[in-house]
Q: What sequence folds into this?
């Protein structure tokens, strides 16, 4: 087949030069696992830090793994995390298409070019044929493809193709020498060439394997920094041989170690570890997840841990990326989430909390915005909200022992006295605001010559039926309203009598 050299020069001419270009290249599997999100984040941060472009490419050539709606999950995750891509299937760009299955013809042409350059050959072996066991100098044995197809003459290949014999394109790897490259995280890596397998680059259906498509696309998209999981580290020498065969520059590599569930196991959706979407469903907020994920295997140096995305983009430095796997610590994420919630603008928090509060607090007279303001400083994950505020709708059936509070010396006896004394004070109160309630009840404590807590604690228990509440007695009374508060205090008196 004659090579269309004009096509290759046009493709070369499209490649943007003189700028940093990074890409996030997920396979649409239906969810974004934490390691994937971290890859996306580091890819984004490198581009932003270095004033470059962040590109989204969808790697969908593995048709068996395709999941419907999966690409939408990718878009939604990037959007929710504010990882805005400059080029991609939805926004276009100078080097599209950005979906691999839409680039199919191009891979065929580049495979022919590679055959011409001696970096690949047509292989007519059937599945499982041509596999040899090879002993390496260190005594280890490996299975490798070794067949005679590479030696077929041009005419022999053409005859087989004309006869309709199915074939693949396979990478030709020199058996001598070694390939060395430098990874920005793992340092210099040298691999003897005879350890590298001659993998399939183009399948018999014309679709490329990852081993081929990643090189073609990274080159044709002008990618300067390849960020991906360290599971690709051992294959990178093969990719580098492909770059060399074409005479192309090799990008900088940033291989990131895995995110682990514990010392032995990688996080995996199959084993119940949360994906990004799961974390959101569990009440974590995107900026906290992004901040936490940034610190999984990267350290800014120093003690500080809270960084917004914008701040990360200012300080992110590849020198801080660790070679060792990091362990996902949900307790740490929970802490960070609480910090983010605390710092949030009250209106923004209300917008996030509203759906949860709507479920938990159905009493229409209760101001949900005021409830949100009360819980905001104490909320760790949004999903806790219901449990923290459900007493507002209905007083739970609580145990009388809740009234005993050792530290303030509140006993069942003085609790009863306090509640009884608070009734007339509260009944006579016109202004039912937190401030007025506090003034009234602390005035009562003063006249009883007891500490505030001996009055406030029993009122809090009586109106909430809980040991821990968002806010103190007077804040809760203000939320519940006068009638409901007084009704609950009556019920408390009855319990204690
Ligand atoms: N599609 C590959 C994956 O999802 C991406 C690897 C890469 O970034 O090169 O694992």
A:
């Amino acid at each position: 087949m004659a090579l269309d050299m004009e096509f290759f020069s046009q493709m070369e001419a499209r490649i943007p030069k003189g700028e940093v270009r990074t890409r996030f290249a997920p396979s649409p599997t239906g969810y974004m696992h934490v390691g994937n999100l971290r890859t996306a984040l580091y890819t984004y941060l490198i581009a932003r830090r270095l004033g470059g472009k962040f590109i989204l490419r969808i790697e969908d050539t593995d048709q068996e793994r395709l999941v419907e709606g999966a690409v939408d999950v990718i878009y939604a995750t990037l959007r929710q995390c504010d990882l805005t891509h400059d080029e991609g299937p939805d926004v276009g760009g100078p080097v599209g298409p950005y979906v691999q299955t839409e680039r199919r013809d191009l891979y065929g042409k580049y495979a022919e070019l590679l055959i011409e350059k001696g970096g690949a050959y047509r292989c007519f072996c059937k599945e499982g044929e041509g596999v040899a066991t090879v002993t390496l100098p260190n005594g280890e044995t490996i299975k490798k493809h070794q067949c005679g197809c590479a030696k077929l003459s041009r005419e022999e290949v053409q005859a087989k193709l004309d006869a309709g014999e199915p074939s693949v394109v396979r990478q030709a790897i020199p058996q001598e020498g070694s390939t060395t490259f430098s990874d920005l995280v793992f340092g210099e890596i040298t691999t003897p060439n005879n350890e590298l397998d001659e993998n399939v680059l183009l399948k018999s259906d014309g679709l490329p394997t990852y081993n081929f498509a990643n090189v073609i696309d990274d080159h044709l998209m002008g990618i300067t920094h390849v960020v991906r999981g360290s599971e690709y580290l051992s294959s990178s020498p093969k990719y580098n041989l492909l770059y060399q065969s074409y005479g192309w520059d090799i990008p900088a590599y940033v291989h990131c170690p895995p995110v682990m569930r514990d010392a032995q196991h990688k996080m995996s959706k199959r084993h119940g570890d949360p994906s990004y979407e799961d974390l959101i469903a569990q009440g974590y907020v995107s900026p906290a997840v992004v901040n936490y994920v940034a610190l999984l295997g990267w350290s800014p140096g120093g003690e500080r841990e809270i960084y917004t995305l914008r701040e990360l983009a200012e300080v992110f430095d590849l020198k801080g990326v660790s070679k060792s796997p990091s362990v996902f610590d949900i307790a740490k994420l929970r802490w960070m989430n609480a910090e983010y919630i605390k710092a949030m603008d009250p209106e923004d928090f209300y917008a996030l909390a509203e759906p949860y509060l709507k479920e938990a607090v159905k009493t229409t007279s209760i101001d949900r915005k005021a409830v949100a303001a009360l819980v905001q400083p104490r909320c760790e994950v949004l999903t806790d909200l219901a449990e923290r505020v459900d007493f507002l709708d209905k007083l739970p059936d609580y145990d009388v022992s809740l009234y005993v509070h050792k530290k303030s010396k509140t006993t069942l006896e003085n609790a009863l006295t306090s509640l009884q004394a608070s009734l007339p004070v509260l009944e006579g109160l016109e202004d039912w605001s937190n401030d007025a309630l506090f003034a009234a009840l602390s005035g009562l404590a003063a006249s009883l010559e007891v500490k505030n807590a001996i009055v406030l604690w029993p009122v809090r228990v009586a109106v909430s039926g809980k040991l821990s509440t968002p806010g103190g007695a007077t804040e809760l009374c203000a939320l519940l309203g006068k009638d409901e508060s007084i009704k609950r205090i009556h019920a408390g008196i009855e319990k204690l009598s």
Notes: The chain has a mean pLDDT of 96. The two ends are 98 Å apart (CA to CA). The longest helix spans residues 34-49. Residues 25-27, 59, 214, 228 surround glutamic acid (CB under 6 Å).
